Amino acid sequence: MTIETEPGLWLLTTPSSAYAVRLGPDGAPRCAHWGPRLTLGQARALPAGPEELPVEGGGRFGVAGLQVRYGDAVRGVEWRHVGHDIEGDDVDGGHLTIRMADRHYPLEIDLHYLVRPDSDAVGRWTTLRNTGDGPITVLRCDSAAWAVPRREDYRLTHVTGEWGAEFQVRRTALAVAETVLTSRRGHSGYHANPWVMLDAGDATEDRGEVWSAALAWSGSWRITVERDHDGRAGWSGGFGHEGVTWRLGPGESLETPAFTGIYSAEGFGGVSHRWHDHVRRHVLPAPGRVRPVVYNSWEATEFDISQDQQMELAELAAGIGVELFVMDDGWFGGRAGAFAGRTGETAGLGDWWPNPDRFPDGLTPLIDHVKRLGMAFGLWVEPESVNPDSELYRTHPEWVLRQPNRRATEIRDQLLLDFSRDDVAEWAYDRLDELVAHNDIAFLKWDMNRPITEAGDEVWVPYIRNVYAVMDRLRAAHPHLTIEGCASGGGRADLGMLARTEQIWTSDNTDAAQRIAIQHGYGQVYPACTMGAWVTDSPNALTGRPTPLAFRFHVAMSGALGIGGDLLRWSPADLEQAKRLVEQYKLIRPVVHEGRMDRLADWAVQYTLDPHVVVFSWRPTTLVRVTAPVRLKGLDPDGVYRDEDTGKTHHGTLLMSHGLPRPWPFDATSELKRLTRVG
Ligand code: DGJ
């Protein structure tokens, strides 16, 4: 049973965890349990703990996930239980709605819970409804609060970063304080990412309890983690940052995004396995869709593109086994002889037609060429942005996001369109739909290169909802379209974006040595099949670091492989080696994308899809010790595994206890091992 109930108690069960809610003596819905599986009888013995959605009022002095003001300026909620609904079944999973209301004021609050029989995720969100005849002001409405059981100590895990350095894992003691993880930028951000993990300070990669949650929202967000002197810890989180209010008119409702939690008793590795499985099965819009090997021309050409050069690159890309050719920024805008369009950062954004100087006959000749070479075609777009020097801006200056009497902040020479306006979203949908429908486009890279700045309270949430709506409509109208999410690299990677995209452009930093840490952080929650990873040139354009081609490939092959180098400058030997590596990647792609990912000691990552095992070992600098055998995980101890390159066989138990020998020459920087269980 995924959902069981008796008066005042609800028990949600997943394959390896349980979550229990109990009505407290004050009528408030409270967390009774989040941890290992329980029976209903065991759950019955538990007292009610912290509130499921902490409110203001009474003797409450902690973080309030729900803050409202009624017409008479009274605030807070006094809980009244109204009832509950359970929908679904044991096969597809269940949706529990605990229906609550204020004891006096016309505010209904639904707490939602979603569990599925093949996932350890508990999805939670909140709906508010104003049933009165005057407005209610909502200062904050979190999706959910999550409380972890009392432990001696707590440790917080999250990621921080910046452009070119996203997803850096931080694991620190949790302060006895309120720790705020947030983005106020209108996108989920590269300086933080909307997920959190807590453990008791004793979890390792393979053992120990870890509690985690990730928010399905691509705009501003806030997760406040609390630890009090008394030894309690947990967090409340949802969309929006502080200072933004929502007016809930009579009869109106407000639904939050989902904040999904996963508990694992198998350490940080165990929690990542569960996230990867959950995202692949239940978040991605087209589960199981194969990620093509992409060529993207950005690093090779930046804005300096032409039809002939793109055709030449396409020929070389096809020659090494690329399956989808993507033309990045710089292909659009302009009027022949009158306006240059998007030939640099300063002009043309918003003018979504092929640049007539660069593509005099439109995109068809290039697309036909790409298709003749056996590849599909993709295009870069940034639908939310506009350069002041563009025809769109000259025609519709009123579409830009700005506030009266305030300067409109330009970042990267661009402004944002007010996507909270339905007419703007409609325009964007029409442009994109036309592009895709008339040009045989299989893939869109949807970029967003600046944060939201001057925006009124009413913009932040509808803006993101309209981005989602445009993506959802495009996908529905073009079911085979693949979308890559991007915001100057990994600035908008979250469960909301992943519900509408196949992959995320992880980072503009393509230096293989630095990329290992970026990918390590990305993979804590998000699966490898969604992690866009290119092989680019050496020395690296951003860092100047020279690296061997095989090393660059081995790092990128552990995600969704793309090629992003200037193939016109690659030697015949490089192209030949690249072709062999792309062939090898296609063999291991199902294992990397569908298998279980284990982070191993000593700079190694393993993917397992029985009977196949793939192990990447990297040595980004010679200071890294990689001579020790690398111990594999999760194999059949009685199994025998054959090395696909040497034919040598290994015992599963020895691979796990003694490890896979790595007899590397001193100058090797990476290795790929493919094993198959043969007995
Ligand atoms: C930022 C992206 O991260 C890059 O890959 C590239 O698409 C540029 N934008 C283009 O302007």
Distance between the termini: 36 Å
Structural class call reads: alpha+beta
Q: Rounded to an integer, what's the Rg over CA atoms?
A: 26 Å
Please indicate the count of domains: 3
Specify the CATH class of the largest domain: Alpha Beta
Can you tell me the CATH superfamily of the largest domain?
Aldolase class I
Enzyme class: hydrolase
EC number: 3.2.1.22
Catalytic activity: Hydrolysis of terminal, non-reducing alpha-D-galactose residues in alpha-D-galactosides, including galactose oligosaccharides, galactomannans and galactolipids
Domain Glycosyl hydrolase family 36 N-terminal: 28-248
Plain-language structure description:
- The chain is of the alpha+beta class and 679 residues long.
- It has 3 domains: 3-283, alpha-galactosidase from lactobacil brevis (Beta-galactosidase, Chain A, domain 5), CATH 2.70.98; 294-594, Aldolase class I (TIM Barrel); 612-677, Immunoglobulin-like.
- Helix content is 21%, strand content 30%.
- The protein contains 13 helices and 37 strands.
- The strands form 7 sheets. Strands 6, 7, 8, 9, 12, 13, 15, 16, 20 and 21 form a 10-stranded antiparallel β-sheet that branches.
- A hairpin with a 2-residue loop joins strand 33 (604-609) and strand 34 (612-618).
- The longest helix has 23 residues, at 572-594.
- The two termini are 36 Å apart.
- (2R,3S,4R,5S)-2-(hydroxymethyl)piperidine-3,4,5-triol is lined by residues 298, 328-329, 380, 447, 449, 486, 488-489, 505, 508.
- (2R,3S,4R,5S)-2-(hydroxymethyl)piperidine-3,4,5-triol binds at residues 298, 328-329, 380, 447, 449, 486, 488-489, 505, 508.
